[in-house]
Design goal:
The protein is mainly beta. The protein is 0% helix and 53% strand. It has no helices and 20 strands. The strands form 5 sheets. Strands 3-5-6-1-2-4 form a 6-stranded mixed sheet, with no helix packed on it. Strands 8-13-12-10 form a 4-stranded mixed sheet, with no helix packed on it. The chain has a 4-stranded antiparallel sheet with strand order 14-15-18-17, with no helix packed on it. A hairpin with a 5-residue loop joins β12 and β13. The chain is rod-shaped. The model has no long low-confidence stretch (mean pLDDT 94).
Length: 238
C-alpha cells in the first residue's frame, strides 16, 4: 500500500476449511406405500437440519401424502455446510377386484373366484398364489385375497359366497305294526321323489314294509334362480 510517499506491504493468511460430503439413504429406496412411513438417514456431517418439517438428527421418519423433495443441510466441525436431496414418492395400494362366477350356489357346487388389479396374489383359504381359484363351499363362506404391486404395496378384498342350506323334514309315524301302513309327509322342498313307496302323491307317500327298512327321499328346491337337490334318508321300524 502507499500513502503517496511511502510504500508498505502487508500479508494475510486465509484458511480454507473443507465442506462435508452429505449423503442420503432410505430404507425403501425412493418409493413407499401411501400412508406408510419412510426412514431417511443422512451421513457425512455432525449435525443436520431437514426441510420440510424442520426435523433434526441424522435419522428422520416421514410420511408424505404426495411426492416430496426432502433436503438435509449437514455441518461439520468447522461449521461448514452442504446439502443433499431425496425425493420420496408414495405409491397407491392396488385396487383389488374380486369376482365370483356365482355368489349363490347349492352346497358343494364349484365357484370360480377371479382376482384382478395387482401383480401378485395370496389366498388364505384355499392356499394359493394364483389370480384364479376354484372353491366348493358347503356353507356360506367369506373368501379373502391379498394383492401386491411392484413397490410392494398390499391391499385385500373379500367376497361372500352364499350357500342355500336346505332343511327337509319328514312328519308321520315311522314305527308301525307288521301288516300296517304309514303315511309320511315331506316339508321344506318343491319337488319330492320317494324311494320304495307303495303310493306317492307330491310331498306325501304311503309305506307298508314288513321289516324295518331304510328309505330315501330325494328333493329339489328352486331359490334365487338356482335349483338345489337334497337327499334325506329315513327308517321305518316294523
Amino acid at each position: 500500500v502507499t500513502d503517496g510517499t511511502c510504500f508498505g506491504t502487508g500479508t494475510v493468511s486465509l484458511t480454507v476449511n473443507p465442506i462435508p460430503t452429505i449423503g442420503i439413504t432410505t430404507t425403501t429406496n425412493n418409493a413407499i406405500c401411501a400412508g406408510s412411513p419412510a426412514m431417511i438417514t443422512a451421513t457425512g456431517g455432525l449435525s443436520y437440519t431437514w426441510t420440510p418439517g424442520g426435523l433434526t438428527g441424522s435419522l428422520v421418519t416421514v410420511t408424505p401424502t404426495a411426492a416430496t423433495l426432502y433436503s438435509v443441510t449437514g455441518s461439520n466441525s468447522f461449521g461448514c455446510t452442504n446439502v443433499a436431496n431425496q425425493v420420496i414418492i408414495p405409491q397407491p395400494a392396488p385396487n383389488i377386484v374380486l369376482n365370483p362366477s356365482s355368489s349363490y350356489i347349492c352346497p358343494g357346487d364349484q365357484v370360480t373366484l377371479t382376482a384382478s388389479g395387482a401383480n401378485t396374489y395370496t389366498w388364505v383359504n384355499p392356499t394359493s398364489n394364483n389370480a384364479v381359484v376354484n372353491v366348493n363351499p358347503t356353507t356360506p363362506t367369506i373368501y379373502t385375497v391379498s394383492g401386491s404391486n411392484t413397490v410392494p404395496c398390499v391391499s385385500s378384498q373379500t367376497v361372500l359366497v352364499d350357500v342355500f342350506i336346505q332343511t327337509v323334514t319328514i312328519t308321520g309315524n315311522t314305527v308301525i305294526c307288521n301288516g300296517k301302513n304309514t303315511n309320511l309327509t315331506g316339508n321344506g322342498a318343491d319337488n319330492y321323489t320317494w324311494n320304495g313307496a307303495n303310493f306317492s302323491n307330491g310331498n306325501s307317500a304311503t309305506y307298508s314294509p314288513t321289516t324295518t327298512t331304510t328309505y330315501t327321499l330325494s328333493t329339489s328346491t328352486f331359490t334365487n334362480g338356482i335349483t338345489c337337490p337334497y337327499t334325506k334318508t329315513f327308517q321305518i321300524v316294523v
